[in-house]
Specification:
mainly alpha; Arc Repressor Mutant, subunit A; 3-stranded antiparallel β-sheet; 3 strands
Length: 122
C-alpha cells in the first residue's frame, strides 16, 4: 500500500453556511443505512474474501475448486463464504452432493470494478 501524505487545508472562518447544511441533511441516508453500508465495506476489507469474489466473477464454483485455485483449505474457504453469504454477496445452489457458489447479483462486480478503477488512478 502506498502512503500518500496529504496536507489538509482547514477553514479559518466561523461562518456556518446553513443553506448548505440544510440541503445536505435532506439527502443524508438514515443512520441504519449508513451503518449497513459501513458493514458491507468491512466485508470487502479481507484479501481472502476479495480473492473469492474475484474467482466467482469468472464462474460459479464449489468450495473444493475455490480452495484449489487459492491454495487454501476448504475449511478456510467455507468460513469466508459464510461471511460473504451473510452479507448477501454470494449465493449457492445444490446439485446432488455438490454446493456451487456464485455472486448474489451484478452489483457486486460493479462495486469491485469501481474500487479497482479508483486504486488504479494515477
Amino acid at each position: 500500500m502506498v502512503d500518500h501524505k496529504v496536507d489538509i487545508e482547514s477553514c479559518e472562518c466561523n461562518i456556518i453556511h446553513q443553506n448548505i447544511i440544510d440541503k445536505v441533511k435532506e439527502t443524508m441516508p438514515e443512520e441504519e443505512h449508513l451503518y449497513d453500508l459501513a458493514e458491507l465495506f468491512k466485508v470487502f476489507g479481507d484479501t481472502t474474501r476479495i480473492k473469492i469474489l474475484y474467482v466467482l466473477f469468472a464462474s460459479e464454483m464449489c468450495v473444493c475448486d475455490i480452495a484449489s485455485i487459492l491454495g487454501m483449505t476448504q475449511s478456510a474457504i467455507s468460513h469466508q463464504l459464510r461471511v460473504l453469504k451473510q452479507s448477501r454477496l454470494v449465493k449457492y445452489r445444490k446439485e446432488g452432493k455438490t454446493v456451487f457458489y456464485s455472486l448474489d447479483d451484478n452489483h457486486i462486480k460493479q462495486i469491485f470494478d469501481q474500487g479497482l478503477s479508483h486504486i488504479n488512478e494515477k
